[in-house]
Write a structure and sequence with these properties.
The structure holds two protein chains of two kinds. By secondary structure, chain A is mainly α. Chain A contains eleven helices and no strands. Chain A has one domain: MetI-like (MetI-like fold), CATH 1.10.3720. Chain B is elongated. Classes of the chains: A mainly alpha, B mainly alpha. Chain A: Its main location: membrane.
Chain lengths: 254, 266
Amino acid sequence: MPRPVIRRLIDAVPTAVLPMVAGVGLSALVAPQPDAAMALLRGLVVTLLLTLPSLAVGTALGTLAGSWAALAPRSAGGLVGRLLAGAGPLLPGFLLAAVAALAVRAGASAAPLGWTALSIPAACQAARLARPAMGRALGPGPEGGAVRMARGLGLDERTVLRHHALPQAVAPVMGGLRAAVLAAMVGAVALESLLDLPGAGALMVDAARAGSAAGAVPVLVALGGLTALLNALGLGVRDWIDPANHSSTPYEGA
Amino acid sequence: MAEYDQPPLSHPVPPETPRAGFARGLSGAAILAALVLACAAAPLMADGSAVHRLDADPVAAALLDGRGSLSFALLAAVLGGLLGIGWALLAGMLGTLAGNRAERRTIAAAQRMAGWPLALLVPLAGGLMGPVWLLALVTALTAAPAVAALAHAELSSLMRAEFLTAARAAGLPESEVVRRHLIPNLTRPLLAAGVLALPRVLAAESFASLLGLGLPPALGSWGASVGLAARLGDPVAFVPRALLLALALWAACAIADGMATGHRKP
């Protein structure tokens, strides 16, 4: 694992791992069911398996589409990027989770639909942030200096885009991943509850429906920790990718 | 390699102007106003079927549900906006009275809270607490940290503005600086920060109601009806409510974005 990611994960121990441990511990101590702590641990794994791949795939595709929208706005990929960037608020995660639940009731398969529903808000957020960042990286302003220099040195366009422009578009996306993580977490809770998946969100909703604070609050604390963990992963990837953090390393792309 | 639609360096594309943000905000406000009016007039369209809402026309029933969602969102947004702005002003006052460290800590708490999934508190409150006003308060609290962070950023940037330094250097008393320069220039940024609460509370309420832990059924809510239709597998009931909810969320976000970009000078 790259060193910046490990550093961010170590920094996130108090805000991510401790709440999860506290949630599981609280659950073992105060929850009414005897196996509540184990159920919460299993639920956290299910929620992580729902959110992490969706965030990764959605962010990657959204970043590519948003970058393409800045490169070639009138191409098919550019139109998809512009559509994603503009449609973000129209497609909240919980509403897409409801659409997925409706499709599952009609006979569709739950897993791919669930992942798709959770990855769309992340893709929208990534496209919204990547499009202007790519525009700035290729533009005449000070942030386009690296690309102009690379072109001036005679590097081919593909190398310039891959090694100089794209990292500048990805860095703000990873920095702004917090909103996508929150949307994915809320969407995952809705999806687990609507599709009866054994995730931590479904545990919290069931406990809240039963009026059991002792069952719901530990799950909420643990979900907060999981959110902080995903945020830290995003920031670690940002530190790893951001060209500003390794400007002193020799160029390896040519 | 394909040719890219990049302008030549001598003709750069100008960045998005505040006017564009203002236009987006205006269109969002128009759509939201139209939705509010349509929802208010929905009982006339329902033709007496308002009591038996499940039998009513799906569009009329969706508009009837919007009355609960929109009125609750407006109430909670006002509360959340006021709480957030109060938080930012408190941080500013602490900065003046107790030093920069207290101000930084107060705002760092808001920024840290804004990164937590506070929307999950709303269904929790809906399940564990009874009254609607308490649910509105919790929903407002979920939006307040983000409002506070934005309001404080605007406040800090205004306090560093050159015209304030110039006014003080010209010998204007502090009360006059506040009355003639600070308050008129502060109103719009704070309002823009407060409006940020509207999409957040609408989304949080709809999410909680979708899980059956939001507004009581008697009040009606887009989220509750969308959740019920999704569970029953009823696309006819699902589509109008989901579309109206998505449209309302887009409009609220457009107003918040438009206010945030529209008040900044180019």
